[in-house]
Amino acid sequence: MLGKDGKGQFWFGSFGQSPGPIHLAFAAENRDQVRQFYAAAIAAGGQDNGAPGIREQYHPHYYGAFVIGPDGHNIEAVCHRPEA
Q1: pLDDT tens sequence across 24-61
Q2: Alpha carbon 71 to chain centroid distance?
Q3: What range defines the domain where residue 51 resides?
Q4: Taking Cα atoms as reference points, which of 65, 84, 68 lies closest to residue 76?
Q5: Across residues 61-81, what is the average pLDDT?
Q6: CA–CA separation, 48 vs 65, rounded Å?
């Protein structure tokens, strides 16, 4: 369970056979959180799948980073706000 302020907002578990690699995206409050996520994930052994940066194909302020975790899932942190 993951959440904010001690309240669960996201649950996951193992219930049967895996559907294969999935994409999980987490909203970041700012672009620095996206950079921190990426640095921590890479330091922990994650595989780069897109360094922090603007993804204009989604919208002009879409700032995201993508990492493949040890189980093959694509994990993203994204901020939808313009640079402060």
Answers
A1: 999 999 999 999 999 999 999 999 999 999 999 999 99
A2: 15
A3: 22-76
A4: 65
A5: 95
A6: 9
Domain membership flag for residue 3 = no
- From 19, 21, 24, select the one nearest 2 (Cα to Cα): 24
State the CATH number of the domain containing residue 33: 3.10.180.10
Q: Which residue has the tokens 């620095």?
A: 32
Residue 1 within a domain? no
| DSSP state at residue 83 | P
Instruction: State how many domains the chain has.
Output: 1
- N- to C-terminal Cα separation, the chain: 30
Q: Residues 10-26, buried b or exposed e (16+ Cβ, 10 A)?
A: eeeeeeeeeeeeeeeee
